[in-house]
Amino acid sequence: MLLTVDPQSLRTQIAPAACWTCAPTTNEAQKDTRLMRAVAGAGADIHKGGPVSQNAGLTHGAGEGAYVTGDLCPTAKPLDRSFIETMMKQGPHTPLALAVSGLWIKEHPADFQWLVARKREGALDISWVDHSYRHRYTPKLDETKNYLMQPGSNIDAEITETEKTLISAGQTPSVFFRFPGLVADAALMEKLRARHLVALGADAWLVLSPPPRAGSVVLVHPNGNEPAGIRLFSKYLEAGKIPRPFRRIEDAP
Ligand SMILES: [Zn+2]
Asked: What pTM, to 2 d.p., does this model score?
């Protein structure tokens, strides 16, 4: 089987290798595709020797509406199903990008299967964003040396272990990756680019940012760790302060 990405639509799929004829290519040959422009453009503000970015990647999407994203970082708390149900009430196939860590899936099998069922029945159109496997974080450690910049971090393992976890559950990883804490330096961003993944930041982390505007990448934590953000989402939604329509993250770059 192959995990493929369409270089124009950015949609991914898992397909039998026998159905494809593969030929080698280069970054140069692909550079004018939407995929390669997205890969190069995300986090282009991060420079070697410059400061660590606390919002690493694509922070704002194209056009009207909003790109709603929810992070499922590891936690002992249960999934905030009320947020998912609020999204479902917006109509069938409502797009929602969930940045999921492998450990969250491992520790919340029932909640994960519940999400998969909502996707399967068409209540939500979930795009799975890779949020690393372990979501490394050490409290009180300087941000410039924390998260995936900690010694011993293996970004390949962090990416592929989450992908394998998703695929073995019948799901298809998207072409997006969200760094733990949204924090990355130039070296990490370069490694992600080499793997042709699009880093995803956010310009409307609701508990930290002003209300979203047209094209905003909205960030909440439905993992139970940030109930204030979920409350704000509902409040903004009722007040019409979240631009419509909700759009697929694949349309953002
Ligand atoms: Zn996280």
From this structure: 0.97
